[in-house]
Specification:
With about 150 residues, this protein is mainly alpha-helical. It has one domain (about 1-45, about 50-115). The protein contains six helices and no strands. The protein is elongated and about 70 Å long.
């Protein structure tokens, strides 16, 4: 849980916005390890048998406590939704989007922070370029290329 705490600390530091994708990938992996089909060995301190129902229950509780204490502006229902989404989303793309939405809810980042939406912006720019390239005459011809005035 120490690693998750440190990842959240770095993710919410505005100096580290460019590393969001990597931080989200680490959290995605950690949550996958704690899911019911993840690690079988107990993750909680002391690893006393029966101390917690499961790794997933332990990690859910710890993440909820971490989010609630780190972001007192979040309501308990928002914290529960954030944790439920983290465990429900198996694919990285939707997980990352969910995590980004959680960060925006915490008001640590504005909804328009470009670094958080870098992947989506790159995909949109590539789609626009492809759309324009498919229309004859929409993309300017390369400069210096054998025109009549040469």
């Amino acid at each position: 849980m120490h690693l998750a705490r440190e990842i959240f600390a770095v993710m919410t530091d505005t100096f580290h916005k460019p590393g969001f994708k990597l931080h989200a990938r680490i959290l995605h992996h950690l949550v996958a390890l704690a899911s019911p089909d993840g690690l079988a060995a107990p993750l909680w301190p002391g690893a006393a048998p029966g101390a917690h129902a499961s790794n997933a229950a332990y990690v859910r509780g710890e993440l909820a406590a971490l989010l609630a204490s780190s972001f007192p502006n979040l309501r308990p229902a928002q914290v529960e939704d954030a944790i439920a989404g983290m465990f429900a989303l198996r694919e990285f793309g939707p997980f990352k989007e969910h995590l980004r939405d959680v960060l925006v809810q915490t008001k640590q980042f504005a909804a328009a922070d470009a670094e958080l939406f870098a992947d989506e912006a790159a995909r949109a720019a590539a789609a626009d370029a492809a759309r324009l390239a498919a229309i004859p005459g929409m993309v300017a011809a390369p400069a210096g290329g054998g025109g009549m005035g040469d």
